[in-house]
User: Fold DUF397 domain-containing protein from Streptomonospora nanhaiensis.
Amino acid sequence: MRDTKNRDAGHLSMPAGEWAAFLTAVKAAEL
Assistant:
């Protein structure tokens, strides 16, 4: 994941399972 407005800042890496859990929480309005 990276900031598309600041591409020189690098990116964050995370396991696919953690990303999926994050998206599930966002979709469930938990975050």
